[in-house]
Amino acid sequence: MSEYQVPKVWKWEDENENKTGNRPTAGSRFEKTLPIGKAPFQLYSLGTPNGIKATIMFEELKEAGVTEAEYDLYLINIGEGDQFGSDFVAINPNSKIPAMFDQSVTPRVDLFESGSILVYLAEKFGHFLPKEIHKRTEVMNWLFWQIGSGPYVGGGFGHFFNYAPEKIEYAIDRFTMETKRQLDLLDQTLAKRSYIAGDEYTIADIAIWSWYGRLALDKLYAGSYEFLNMEEYTHVLEWAQRINERPGVQKGLNADYQSID
């Protein structure tokens, strides 16, 4: 295989092949009206690590007795390009799941980015985000850590280990190194506390578990548990299993999606 020669100006070569995937341009590609139910919240998502953050949060709120946290859930098939429909892009111009809106207020509130959704719901209903400044800040520290670190696991390690059309040693080594560093950080943190941000379950746990907990439980990439030697992260494994057993988490993982067609 010849060495890749970097051109002076990059040009997209997949224009005639990639009909539903990413392009170097943003915006909607076709007109698509999304269904709107009667629940206060309308969530358009998919069961990916980012997508399950929202359904877990809703189900955890309901488990906590928040009766106003009812939502209608619709499937956005990113493999089919649903995220590029006009109504979805109107909610999330970045064309990524999850996206939702709160129609319990007028005018409605549109939300995108999983971290923003978690904070909005936590603040609206007063659950899973402490009000005391030190505890709240620690939760926000870890929430933003996940938002910044997650792409190294998904778009980095997961892509090159599991999805890339060819195995590239340099790329796999680079992102495996960083993924294991992050797991070690979590393991050291969880050796000193019950949950990510302290002694109580928060949106930081929801956000981080959806990626790192699922990875620790061997639910993301085939063969990664052994490859990453996951058994050495004993505190992460214990935490991941404990979170996995929460009723709200299980309901969030098994939520029923309605079709948008």
N to C succession of SSEs: EHEHEEHHHHHHH
What is the count of DSSP helices, taking H or I runs of 4+ residues? 9
- Strands of the largest sheet, in order across it? 2-1-3-4
- pLDDT averaged over residues: 96
How much strand?
5-15%
Oligomer: single chain
* Count of strand segments: 4
Q: What value does the Rg take, in angstroms?
A: 19 Å
Looking at the overall shape, the CATH architecture of the domain at 133-249 is Up-down Bundle
Terminal Cα separation, in Å? 45 Å
Shape: globular
Percent helix among the residues?
40-55%
**Which CATH class of the domain at 133-249 applies here?**
Mainly Alpha
Largest sheet: 4 strands, mixed
Low-confidence stretches: none
**Strand pairing plus helix content: what structural class?**
alpha+beta
Q: Would you tell me which CATH topology of the domain at 133-249 applies?
A: Glutathione S-transferase Yfyf (Class Pi), Chain A, domain 2
Explained architecture:
Residues 42-129 form the GST N-terminal domain. It comes from Enterococcus sulfureus ATCC 49903. Residues 132-261 form the GST C-terminal domain. This is Glutathione-dependent disulfide-bond oxidoreductase. It holds the Pfam family GST_N. The chain is an alpha+beta fold and 261 residues long. It has a domain at 133-249: Glutathione S-transferase Yfyf (Class Pi), Chain A, domain 2. It has 9 helices and 4 strands. The chain has helices at residues 51-63, 86-91, 114-125, 133-163, 169-190, 203-216, 224-227, 234-244, 247-253; strands spanning 41-45, 71-75, 99-102, 109-112. A 4-stranded mixed beta sheet has the order 2-1-3-4, covered by helices on one side. Helix 1 links the parallel strand 1 and strand 2. Helix 1 crosses helix 9 and helix 5 (169-190) packs across helix 8 (234-244). The longest helix is centred in the middle third of the chain and has 31 residues, at 133-163. The protein is globular and about 60 Å long. The protein starts with 40 loop residues before the first strand and ends in an 8-residue tail after the last helix. The relative contact order is 0.14. The model has no long low-confidence stretch (mean pLDDT 96).
